[in-house]
Every structure is written in C-alpha cells, then in structure tokens.
C-alpha cells in the first residue's frame, strides 16, 4: 500500500514512504515500525533500499526502492565466496590449497589476518575469515586466486544484472579505480540468499558451503542487532532463531542481507543505506532505522 506523496520532488526521489510497498494488510501491520523509520530517514536525505520476502512462499512482505542499485561494501564478498566454493571442485584448487599473502594484497580495515603471523592459509580458512569478519586481506588474496573475471562470469551465469563485485579492497580509491568495492540491489540480493537457502546457487553443495562460511559472520550491528544473538556463536538455533547474514560498512554506507528463521516463519531480507556520514548522530540514526526493520522481522518469524 503506497503512502501519500512527499512535499517536494527532491524528497520524493529518496522517500521510502512514497515508494515503499507492503505485502497486504497483515504485512502492513507487522512492518509499519521499520517502514516508518526508513521513511523518516529518506526524508532526511538518506538513500534507502530494502526488501523482505517470506522464505517459504516467496511472498513480498515489504519493499522500498528495491530495484535501486546501491553501494554494498563487504556484501560483494558473497559473490566471491560463491566462485571460491564452485572452484573447490578443481583438482588444483582444493580446500587445503595454501595461498600466500603478498605486499600487494595488504590493506587496512576489517579482518584479523593482517594481525596474525601466518604468511599462508588454506583456501577454506580464508573463506571462513571473509565470512566471519569481511577480512580485507583474505578477500584480496582470494580475488587474486580466482580472478575478478571469473567472479563476474559467475554473476552473469546467475542472472544478476544489478549486483557486482567491482574491484579489490583498497585503502584509497583513485580516479582509475572502481568507485565502489561492490554494488547491489535489494531485489537481487534477497533472491540470491533465498536461492542459497534452497540449494539453488550452482548446486546444493556450493550453496551449503557458502552458507556455512556466512553463518560465521560476527557483525550484528545493523538489522541483526534486534535479534539478541551472540555475534560470535550463532550457528545453531538460539531461542528458536537461526541467522545467516552478511554486512557491508564503508564511509556513508551500511548494508545487510540475511536469512532469519524462527518458530513461526522464515524471511529473507536486504537493507542498504547511503548517507552523509558527517557525524555520529547521522550514523546512529541509520543504524537505529536498520534495527527497527530487524524488530519487525523478529516479530514476523517469532
């Protein structure tokens, strides 16, 4: 159900309230809290894109500009992990194949490998680090190992046209570099995670392996902050809740996509925000908006 038009053209372009949709009366009631929060953020200049669907039926529960391509930061590593999992079937690229880190791979920011002494790690361990912490160094080593062209070919094969892994992780992006690490739209990302849950990405083995790596994710600061789970130990059901998610953070970017199962239902969701990160108040408002969506999701599944 569409909400009333906004006061100005500028606001309406970014307004979640105008462009958002609810999937029926029941969804309107269940998701009104998050829907209102996203609308308030949009009115204050935050670009919002979001979508949630029932995991079993595929029924749309709500959407806000879910076709819009947004920067998604570390969520692009999901596309990398899919290609890594598929490539594990190659004779010369097994789970225990050691990959060396080099000076060209080095980058600051998220991850723990940069703080460890080991100069080499197995492919499966690097994928686990990416899944758990969006490890930048491990990401760059895996990209070098499988190649960006192979990741792009896999994305094309999956039929994704609005989501992409564009580049290596870089400390600074120059004029000759891709402006973002990754891009995506909520509609495609929710489809991708639903297909992973159904074992349909490449095949059941590849889907299961990718979900296993993603289940290690320790970032529960966004939508998942509403679920009350242990960020370091949530691979098994806790109070009937089971979560697999991936997050992305960059300057002015907060993005999350995930699958939440509960006693009553399961849901696939994606929420991305692009905003002027001018101060802690602006950032906290975005995170609070994402948490409000999480509370609605929790209510739906529990």
UniProtKB/TrEMBL annotation:
This is Beta-lactamase class A. Keywords: Hydrolase. GO terms for molecular function: beta-lactamase activity. Residues 1-29 are annotated as: Disordered. Residues 7-29 have a biased composition (Basic and acidic residues). Residues 52-273 form the Beta-lactamase class A catalytic domain. One of its GO terms (biological process) is response to antibiotic. InterPro entries: Beta-lactam/transpept-like, Beta-lactam_cat, Beta-lactam_class-A. Its EC number is 3.5.2.6.
């Amino acid at each position: 159900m569409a909400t009333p038009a906004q006061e100005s053209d500028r606001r309406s372009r970014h307004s979640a309230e105008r462009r958002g949709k609810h999937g029926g009366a029941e969804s309107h009631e269940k998701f009104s809290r998050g829907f209102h929060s996203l609308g308030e953020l949009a009115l204050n200049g935050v670009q919002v894109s979001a979508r949630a669907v029932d995991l079993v039926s595929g029924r749309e529960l709500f959407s806000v500009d879910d076709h819009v391509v947004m920067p998604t930061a570390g969520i692009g590593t999901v596309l990398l992990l899919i290609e890594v999992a598929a490539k594990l079937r190659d004779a010369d690229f097994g789970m225990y194949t050691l990959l060396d880190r080099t000076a060209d791979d080095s980058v600051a920011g998220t991850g723990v490998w940069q703080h460890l002494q080991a100069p080499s790690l197995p492919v499966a361990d690097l994928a686990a680090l990416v899944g758990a912490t969006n490890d930048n160094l491990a990401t760059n080593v895996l990209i070098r190992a499988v190649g960006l062209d192979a990741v792009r070919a896999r994305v094309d094969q999956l039929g994704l046209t609005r989501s992409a892994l564009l580049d290596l992780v870089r400390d600074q992006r120059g004029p000759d570099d891709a402006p973002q690490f990754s891009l995506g739209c909520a509609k495609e990302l929710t489809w991708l995670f639903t297909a992973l849950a159904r074992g349909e990405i490449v095949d059941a083995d590849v889907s299961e392996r990718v979900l296993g790596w993603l289940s290690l994710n320790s970032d529960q600061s966004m939508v998942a902050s509403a679920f009350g789970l242990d960020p370091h130990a949530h691979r098994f059901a806790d109070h009937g809740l089971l979560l697999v998610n991936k997050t992305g953070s960059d300057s002015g970017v907060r993005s999350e996509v995930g699958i939440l199962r509960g006693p009553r239902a399961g849901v696939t969701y994606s929420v991305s925000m692009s905003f002027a990160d001018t101060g802690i108040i602006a950032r906290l408002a975005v995170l609070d908006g994402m948490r409000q969506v999480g509370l609605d999701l929790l209510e739906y599944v529990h």
